[in-house]
């Protein structure tokens, strides 16, 4: 199992992660930052586990994030 | 904002008023530093919709009441930057920010996207047009005058062009929503960008990190070599071929103000509190001295020397004096003559005795050294060490791991950071 770690407070709402993997990343209309679908909040950080089938898309989301607030582990 | 003369006011009154000095604040400490420097207005960003989304320790929505109250206590105006490119998903936050600006009495927003300009206008929130709008001619001024009383001109204009635009405003009687003549703001000091009005895509193309969303990676500040497709390297004078020196107008500020601009903007929300304090103070003093007729080249040189102490990439006069080509920085990072080095933290300040008790966490300090004490509510306090105690005994120096006590001329606060402030090696 792999895990996404999302430091949401530093998100600038550029929308790139949504463009590359909209099933996992959605834009909040409330505050214009991204929402990690299925993410659990601990402090300021969100975490979500995912399977191998999502690896490429999530790694791409982490790669395109301009402020490096998406990390993929595992 | 209505601090300057309109066409209805006597000419004499205009001459005795100094231009508004508009200072940047990317942090609480910088905000206080701007107040200490004598800023007439302070601009800052909140959340992610501002052009320093990456660089600054930005404020949050819940900080607005505190910022507003603090500014009002000091009689200082506040401008909130809301000047990134806006996408559809940003619109709810944009509206929320403007509603909060209205609720908490922030003076105006600085915007370039028509969505923000239009919404603020409808809400009765004053708008200043941002440099991102690239206002370079009188027709643009007239267009934006339907929404804004104050607008900054493109940094690429010459002073002659600025003057012509100001004269055009008077001749055409171009008034803003308030009914008064539109006021012109210009950049007076700070970083310049290789792209026209900051509209740059280098960072986006190379790092997917958009400058126009406040996430500039500053590619232009690095050294580059130029070679062609055959691998032949071209000989160039300077590897920093895309990094302009900083704008500095202090030695021709009389000419800048003679153009009719009434607001002088200091760039630097990403810069340190001591930069903000020094730049604000120097330009405030210079603008006052132009207003009361005591401005001289000798004084200007002194201010320029002071500005060289804090962060800068070397100075040039920008495009104001009509140069053909720009001047490029010879260095990566700062050419400041002084630098600060962290040495410790204030454990406690004793207001009656006017001493601060400091935990030394790095290096050492000695009698005669100059310290900077920087904190969210303290701003920047400079202190030459006149008297120093370690373990309640007079001492010549204090080293890492020790606790020491220093007599202070100005109050500081518990938790403030202490730096050694000395000439760069």
Automatic annotation (TrEMBL), chain B:
* UniProt-listed InterPro entries: Peptidase_U32, RNA/ubiquinone_mod_enzymes
Q: Which UniProt keywords apply?
A: Hydrolase, Protease
- Any single Pfam family the record assigns to this protein: Peptidase_U32
Q: Which residues form a coiled coil?
A: none
Task: State the similarity comment.
Answer: Belongs to the peptidase U32 family.
Looking up PANTHER family in the UniProt record yields: PEPTIDASE U32 FAMILY, TRNA HYDROXYLATION PROTEIN P
- Name under which the protein is recorded: U32 family peptidase
Species of origin: Rhodohalobacter sulfatireducens
